[in-house]
Design goal:
Belongs to the succinate/malate CoA ligase alpha subunit family. The protein has about 290 residues and is α/β, with parallel strands linked by helices. About 35% of the residues lie in helices and about 25% in strands. The strands form two sheets. Strands 3-4-2-1-5-6-7 form a seven-stranded mixed sheet, sandwiched between helices. Strands 9-8-11-10-12-13-14 form a seven-stranded mixed sheet, with helices on both faces.
């Protein structure tokens, strides 16, 4: 059992006919994900990767039964693609597009209010349920089915941690990249809440970094709910300079509350185990679960 994805997930690829859409949609299909069609305005009625292309999301959902979409649309029009999916009541939307303008994402967040859509991203590597469904652009090969849920703000660190968790013999229930931008949809707290309610997830790994307050929100939630599942966190950026963007739009510290030390302190107060280094995350979650390797 995974969160967000299952064997019945039917994927629509928005922007599938472009280079990125073609490449990554083909990779998802090769992995075993059920991709049922693509969306590209003006190209409806054609086919690509032996799948039908539609002019709009609503028509594609009606024809294919799609219940998830992934957005490969360029930054200037990515928000419009997300909003179209939200208005069509697509249950799950993953937006991998980077550098979506901040004001555009404000409009997307407004469209999400009261909607039936869960939006992961923008600037997300996606969601992966090993052996079940890949909805994203992440590398695969080291993932294994298992019982550790991973929620992350960093794509590269996610790959490292997945490999460590697999090497520890634990595997993953689901891996979720919430998105590296300052404004995005599905939050770390939202993800942690789903993992805590998932019987197949026995422990969680949280990969945080400087900027924003999402890690503190998770800490507050864990302290409030007194979660019984072990949670391990890695927070990077301890030596990052202030007021300088580090890697992507969300990794930017202005005040003390957004730095690594404040995040670590908040998580520790909530009972979260802090991995002392990036290369020790797998060992730390194994110890938390009473497993050794």
């Amino acid at each position: 059992m995974a969160i967000l994805l299952d064997k019945d997930t039917k994927v629509l690829s928005q922007g599938m006919t472009g280079w990125a859409g073609t490449h990554h949609t083909a990779a998802m299909m090769e992995y075993g994900s059920t991709v049922v069609g693509g969306v590209r305005p003006g190209k409806g009625g054609r086919s690509h990767l032996n799948l039908p292309i539609f002019d709009g999301v609503a028509a594609a959902m009606s024809e294919t039964g799609a219940n998830a979409s992934i957005v490969f649309v360029p930054p200037a029009t990515a928000a419009a693609a997300m909003i179209e999916a939200i208005e069509a009541e697509m249950p799950l939307v993953v937006a991998v597009t980077e550098r979506v303008p901040v004001l555009d994402m404000v409009r997307v967040k407004d469209a999400l209010k009261g909607s039936r859509t869960r939006l992961v991203g923008a600037n997300s590597q996606g969601v992966l349920a090993p052996g079940v469904c890949k909805l994203g652009v992440m590398a695969t090969g080291s993932e294994r089915p298992g019982h550790v849920g991973i929620v992350s703000r960093s794509a590269s660190l996610t790959s490292e941690v997945v490999a460590q968790v697999s090497a520890a013999g634990l595997g993953q229930s689901t891996t979720v990249g919430v998105g590296g931008d300052a404004i995005h949809g599905f939050s770390m707290r939202d993800c942690v809440e789903l993992f805590l309610g998932d019987d197949d997830t026995h422990g969680l790994v949280l990969i945080g970094e400087i900027g924003g307050y999402e890690e503190q929100e998770v800490a507050d939630y864990l302290a409030e709910t007194k979660a019984q599942k072990p949670v391990v966190a890695l927070v990077v950026g301890a030596h990052a300079p202030r007021e300088r963007r580090m890697g992507h739009a969300g990794a930017l510290t202005f005040g003390a509350a957004g730095d690594a030390a404040a995040k670590v302190a908040a998580l520790e107060r909530a009972g979260v185990r802090i991995a002392p280094s990036a290369h020790l995350v797998g060992r730390t979650i194994a110890e938390a679960l009473g497993r050794t390797h």
